[in-house]
């Protein structure tokens, strides 16, 4: 078992080490390329007190091509209320497109370092943002991953602002996920007992962020995390992951695996959807463990208008409320909630408490 003792020095200056790492503009992959054997201290995470489940747990797998719509809706309802996660197959996105999307992400990260550096930025207003750890300067420990992202809807970037190596597939895949989102929000609307187009009419499916992560092979995976535990801010997440695995969901105070399923996409409920459903649906904590294998590649598409200026106000859906089920949250715009979430330090308090009545 590795120990952190050799990494601790009396002269350790975390702020300087973070700044030095960021200024390389080469991310975690740069550390791996340098063949380091011990991870920098900024990546060391405190031990996780929550145990890993020792028994297998099946994440619900839902066939969207089923002719039994009521079964689809009921399966999504149960999964969204109890686990917050489910998988879908026959979702309308061909496996060849899914595979090419992952290849496009790898092509970006496998480019020459000097080419990638041109895209490295912490300015979230850019059409294409590449960096390591969006919260590098505020988090108590950095995650062992690099990321690029673009806001693909409602105002997509100009194609020429995206890297050539992944441009076409990023645009294609995002358009297909937007179409899938229409279907998913329709099923979820019905699962809530609403009309099929209710969440669509609320414009929950109008914003989309394409977020591509790479988790390089880690020499000391027991000391760090690919992604520390968190909930997703948005309404809904559609996750495409490769075959390496590492995603875990917190369920009944245990971490359970979400193993890759060929042809499947992983769907999870976000904070905003829990809020407008008045806690009917669950946004649950999840994480990605670091691994000696790698690199692991994944693409998370988040449904929300994120930081885009907005005046549209969201609160618990009135049709779901009653004397016995009063609103538990105050109203907010997506922009306000996202800005709060990005500025909030990791204090252990769930983001939704900000909106609690």
From TrEMBL:
SUPFAM superfamilies: Clavaminate synthase-like (SSF51197). GO terms for molecular function: dioxygenase activity; L-ascorbic acid binding; metal ion binding; oxidoreductase activity, acting on paired donors, with incorporation or reduction of molecular oxygen. InterPro entries: DIOX_N (IPR026992), IPNS-like_FE2OG_OXY (IPR044861), IPNS-like_sf (IPR027443), Oxoglu/Fe-dep_dioxygenase_dom (IPR005123). Pfam families: 2OG-FeII_Oxy, DIOX_N. Residues 206-306 form the Fe2OG dioxygenase domain. The keyword GTP-binding does not apply. It comes from the Eukaryota. Keywords: Dioxygenase, Iron, Metal-binding, Oxidoreductase, Vitamin C. Belongs to the iron/ascorbate-dependent oxidoreductase family. PANTHER family: OS03G0690500 PROTEIN, OXIDOREDUCTASE, 2OG-FE II OXYGENASE FAMILY PROTEIN. This is Oxoglutarate/iron-dependent dioxygenase. It comes from Artemisia annua (Sweet wormwood).
